Amino acid sequence: MYEHEGKRIFYEFGIPIPPGKVAFSIEESLKIAEEIGYPVVLKPQILGGRRGKAGAIRFAENPDELKKHAKELFSMTLHGERVSRILVEKKVDIAHEYYMSLMVDFYERKIIALFSTEGGIDIEEVARTKPEAIVKRHIEPEVGLDQFIGLDIVNQLGIKGKKALKLASIFHKLWLALKHRDLLLAEINPLAETTNGEIIALDARVMADDNAHIRQPWITELKKKRAGVESLEHKARERGISFVVLEGDIGVIGNGAGLTMATVDLVKEFGGRPANFLDIGGGAGPERVIAAIETILKLGNIKVILMNIFGGITRCDLVAKGILEALRKIDLKIPLVVRLTGTNEEIGREMLKQAGIEAYTDMIEAVKKAVELAK
User: Fold this and answer.
1) Which fold has domain 19-90?
2) What is residue 133's DSSP assignment?
């Protein structure tokens, strides 16, 4: 979900958020800032993360600064998504930042609660450099996370008194939001303590379970409202391909979710940075292969494309045909590494060979080559 959508859910369950609204133009941004009062923070609303690292979180003390920043933000493309909306919020004076989240642990089939006194940065980085600053607790489904459990979690990091009670209350409300809205992830980073002692959610990273739409009609309504949003992932779905934006520079195309996920994992294993997950599905013809390559190129930061095809339902010769058609249609200026094995693989590899493309049969060899080229 977009940040403002996640925050709306938080607000419904009593979690404090800063005053603010979404703007679709510079004029709207100015109007909202006038309503809530300066200084304000401008936050582009995209489905990817790490906006701060991309220099996309801006602060404005007056209308002139806001105009300048809003103009720049509305011209940005972040993680393959054009910025079409900005959340304009009241700037908060921060005394300390915490991290708080609840998510589904599919392996344990439980919810896992995470809390850290090191908010505002990647939790993975905290886990690596300062593991003692994180508490992890599996929540028994039939018990849930009440304020007592929340208090026990924050107490483990030495937080006591009124502050601990406030944080425990937020944890309980986050649990209620996750439970009653069928969320897979409810993350607040940072959860800020202000200079006047308030606890407030400055960000919201929320994922809802699409399969829960029968119980949660708001999911369907939200998708209807979003129908016009020009997101890369949305456009990919319309073209029949499953696509998720990651944060690397090696484009990954596979056929079948399992094979594609294994390819993403191997890229990471051998020191590469996968830029995406893209599954063209079984029985994919040339049109879908072309759509896949075009979609990945729109990310803009790709150094190499790795295509891993196991021809079961999908015929390797049809995939090869799609690759060749794509190369005729697209002026591909980056290397393409292909692993092709399965039904009609000899025909497919010969077609590619005649076009000057060597197709690997071994998955690990192909992945290593892609990582090497990217570096």
Assistant:
1) Dna Ligase; domain 1 (3.30.1490)
2) G
pLDDT value, residue 210? 85
CATH superfamily placement of domain 232-374: Succinyl-CoA synthetase domains (3.40.50.261)
For the annotated catalytic residues, the residue numbers are 99, 187
94-219 has CATH 3.30.470.20 classification: yes
- Given this model, what pLDDT does residue 229 score? 44
Burial of 191 (0-12, 13-18, 19+ CB in 10 A): buried
Q: How many CB atoms lie within 10 A of CB 112?
A: 15
User: CA triplet 315, 317, 321: central angle to 5 degrees?
Assistant: 120
pLDDT along the chain (375 residues), means of 10: 95 97 96 96 87 88 97 88 92 96 94 94 85 94 93 96 96 97 96 96 94 90 65 75 88 93 96 94 75 89 93 83 86 91 91 91 96 95
Spatial separation of the C-alpha atoms in residues 39 and 91, rounded to whole Å? 6
* DSSP assignment of 272-295: --B-EEEE--TT--HHHHHHHHHH
CB 81 within 8 A of CB 108: no
Q: How far apart are CA 35 and CA 276, in angstroms?
A: 40
Residues in the chain, overall count: 375
> What whole-number distance in Å separates Cα of residue 48 and Cα of residue 245?
7
Q: Which of 45, 24, 8 shows the shortest CA–CA distance to 218? A: 8
Please name the residues in contact with 355: beta carbons below 8 A apart, sequence gap of 6 or more: 324, 327
The strand pairing partners of 201, in sequence order, are 191
Cα–Cα distance, 41 to 205 (Å, whole number):
18
Q: Please state the pTM of the whole predicted model.
A: 0.66
